[in-house]
Design goal:
alpha/beta; Aminopeptidase; Aminopeptidase i, Domain 2; 2 domains
Length: 438
């Protein structure tokens, strides 16, 4: 694979993954095409043989792993994780609002979204439906309108002369997508609209009624390469689908793979407290089923390394003073080591040193980042995973601009650098993973 091939694959993956459900579905397809066998949480895994496997939970989180030998306590498990969710607008259960002969769709703000860029964008709708069929048990499936179905119009400057100076956004009143014009002030049947889309995407569904949904608005404009030299990639959900894609591609790269595991968690943007989040039981449960003996499991995790992969802040050319002066990560200069004295990131000198050695072996540049002391620091799945299973952990990520905006920006080479580093991590004999104290 060449860098240009990686970029095209990444843009396609992001465009086809408007929700965590779609991201997991697309990841499953890549894994299956490369020989990974699907496991079911409800089935027995007894007698697991060497091979490549994956399992999902809620169809929004995924764990994949490769075992070169039957599970044993002396394994070094190369582990890496990212998250499938991104800040966005989630549709409320009873969403339709009639106002001034307009039909709007009520939403909740999911995660720490940067809200200003959501105005005046072409918005589409995607997610999961649950329905009652004519016969048999309840069913669920995915839909994606793939076309603009709504927008959030700005208030004209003539009606708010201070908009460029003092504009604030009320999450309850100001961020309500406009979807239809009302005829005779009659609200349409929202479930009927969803049923029409379900019939298009899944003609054999036989749904008699829509029971419930998890639906999210997203930017209908595809991701793109931007700049005179096409050095920038812009689009939605680079945080953190870029990391997910790099992990999936590295895990399926044709090579002699070592024992490894990748974890794609949902709900990171809302604190990770869920069945599918990093504070849930998913990873612990999978490890317990692979290594039933607690002593074996503890020995494996203590000798392993977990790389938490989540986008980081590149220095913004208009706002360089928002960064710590000696740590100014730049686009297309390689992945960033993320550090924090208060353990908002899990990196330490040993795990950071290991990642630097991996990048050196992969011939990939590496940068470092710390937040200013007078600014709050975000967090990742890294510290949560490290605390839950006791695995040495390092936090890294691709430098990006406009994180949590409806359109984010990354360099066209940094995803490739990340992919190369992760490929090296999964493939090479890295004796340095076992650091020797002297």
């Amino acid at each position: 694979m060449q860098p240009t091939d990686f970029v095209q694959g990444l843009l396609k993956y992001i465009q086809n993954s408007p929700t965590p459900f779609h991201a997991v579905k697309n990841s499953e397809e890549i894994l299956s095409l490369n020989g990974f066998q699907r496991l079911d949480e409800t089935a027995s895994w007894q007698g697991l043989q060497p091979g490549a496997y994956y399992v999902t939970r809620n169809r929004s989180s995924l764990i994949a792993f490769n075992l070169t030998h039957s599970p044993h306590p002396n394994q070094t498990l190369r582990m890496a994780g990212a998250h499938t969710d991104s800040p966005c607008l989630k549709v409320k259960p009873q969403p339709l609002i009639s106002s001034q002969s307009c039909i709007q769709i009520g939403v909740e703000v999911y995660g720490g979204a940067l809200l200003n860029p959501w105005f005046d964008r072409d918005l589409s709708l995607a997610g999961r439906l649950t329905w009652k069929p004519q016969l048999g048990p309840m069913q669920s499936g995915l839909i994606d309108f793939k076309r603009p179905v709504a927008l959030i119009p700005s208030l004209a400057i003539h009606l708010d002369r201070e908009a460029n100076n003092k504009r604030s956004i009320n999450k309850q009143n100001d961020i309500i997508p406009l979807a239809l014009l009302a005829h005779n002030d009659i609200k349409p049947d929202f479930h009927a609209l969803l049923k029409e889309q379900l019939d298009i995407e899944c003609p054999a569904n036989q749904a008699t009624s829509i029971l419930d949904f998890d639906l999210f608005f997203y930017d209908a404009q595809p991701p793109a390469q931007v700049g005179f030299n096409k050095e920038f990639l812009t689009g939605a959900r680079f945080d953190n689908l870029l990391s997910c894609y790099a992990l999936i591609e590295a895990a399926t790269r044709p090579a002699a793979l070592q024992d490894f595991m990748i974890v794609l968690n949902d709900n990171e943007e809302t604190g990770s407290v869920s069945t599918t989040g990093a504070q849930g039981s998913f990873l612990q449960s999978v490890l317990e089923r692979i290594y039933p003996d607690p002593s074996y499991r503890s020995r494996v995790t203590s000798r392993s390394l977990f790389i938490s992969v989540d986008n980081a802040h590149a220095v913004h050319p208009n706002f360089p003073t928002q960064h710590e002066g000696n740590h100014l990560p730049k686009l297309n200069r390689g992945p960033i080591l993320k550090k924090n004295a208060n353990q908002r990131y899990a990196s330490n000198s040993v795990t950071s040193g290991l990642f630097k050695l991996i990048c050196d072996k992969a011939e990939v540049p590496v940068q470092e980042f710390v937040m200013r002391n007078d600014m709050a620091c975000g967090s990742t799945i890294g510290p949560l995973t490290a605390a839950a299973i006791g695995v040495p952990t390092v936090d890294i990520g691709v430098p990006s601009l406009a994180m949590h905006s409806i359109r984010e920006t990354v360099g066209n080479l940094d995803g490739w650098y990340l992919f190369e580093a992760l490929s090296c991590f999964f493939q090479e004999e890295l004796e340095q993973l076992r650091c020797q104290d002297i």
